[in-house]
Design a protein that fits this description.
11 strands; globular
């Protein structure tokens, strides 16, 4: 698969709540349920203000779609001077497949979904994404608009299977929004997602994802990208926030962690399949990147469900990106 599909497959984003939201008057909600989750919504009527913690307010106009991927708390509302209520206290967590009317409705209408990520490393994979991705759904955004309109229809006129169809459409909406952001906005960002917006960096990332076990050198990747070694190395670090070899090692460990949690392969087999000549070399790389030896990691995640020792892993991630 391509790198974006690979990462989404590893994240396993599952549409948890797919709903409509119809608000009226002066209102504001603090989205306090975002930790480890992704929100993707479209404004199909009216407009609203969205403020992600630490950033300036942004006006989200009609026919715009926004993605909140990093788990930061955000406030959405009719204005920036309205005292927000906690979304977790106002909205029913079992409202999936419904349209929620707030303060009489009529002024702004949103449809979309909240996604639960099935990967224990959701923070590592999403942390360096932009906290807000905003794209237009009008014009030539036909696929995105199509999924939104069908979702509205399923929510407006529920029929047998509507909840499941709405969840599937939410998945399409999320991927289409990420695609559109890549093609129109991501060039100013830094991180693996932003690197996908650069055709030459995309070629190198695709090569690494297609064959993560290969002993890639910077020179080989530069050739794949059609660039000189030095220019490629400098550009990759500027776009991705780390060196290509560091990215490769990190991606290998994400794949290894997934297999340790859900598979029954031995550590030696996982090590060999990811290009490590010895189990010792693999163990060293795993501990350096994820903060603990693979056997201890496997024991931890299997005894803690989808949880992961994120504190040490997150420190390692940022050390590699600095």
């Amino acid at each position: 698969m391509d790198p974006l599909s690979d990462v989404l497959a590893l994240l396993k984003p599952r549409s948890y709540i797919t709903a409509g939201f119809d608000a009226g008057g002066d209102w504001a909600l603090e989205l306090d349920d975002l930790a480890g989750r992704i929100k993707c919504y479209a404004v199909v009527k009216g407009s609203c203000w969205l403020t992600v913690a630490g950033d300036a307010p942004v006006l989200v106009p009609e026919n715009a779609c926004f993605v909140l991927p990093t788990g930061r708390t955000a406030v959405i509302g009719s204005g920036t001077d309205v005292e927000p209520a906690l979304a977790s206290a106002v909205l029913d967590p079992d409202r999936s497949g419904e349209v929620v009317t707030y303060q009489g409705g009529g002024d702004v209408y949103l449809v979309g979904s909240r996604f639960e990520a099935g990967s224990p490393h959701v923070e590592l994979l999403l942390r360096n994404l932009p906290p807000l991705m905003l794209v237009e759904t009008s014009g030539d955004r036909a696929r995105l608009r199509w999924s939104i309109e069908l979702m509205m229809e399923e929510l407006r006129e529920p029929r047998p299977g509507s909840a499941l169809i709405a969840q599937q459409l939410a998945q399409m909406m999320l991927v289409q929004a990420l695609r559109l952001y890549l093609t129109g906005h991501a060039r100013e960002d830094v991180g693996w997602f932003a690197a996908l917006a650069d055709p030459r960096m995309h070629a190198a990332l695709s090569a690494m994802h297609a064959d993560p076990a290969h002993s890639w050198t910077v020179r080989e990747l530069a050739t794949t990208a059609g660039m000189s070694r030095s220019t490629f190395a400098e550009r990759f670090r500027a776009r991705a926030g780390e060196t290509p070899i560091a990215y490769l090692a990190r991606w290998r460990m994400m794949l290894a962690a997934e297999r340790l949690q859900h598979g029954d392969d031995t550590i030696a087999r996982i090590a060999g399949s990811l290009g490590y000549e010895s189990e010792h070399a693999f163990n060293t790389a795993f501990k350096r990147i994820l903060g603990m030896p693979p056997r201890r990691y496997a024991s931890f995640v299997r005894s803690n469900g989808s949880g992961a020792p994120e504190a040490s892993a997150t420190r390692s991630w940022h050390a590699g990106c600095s």
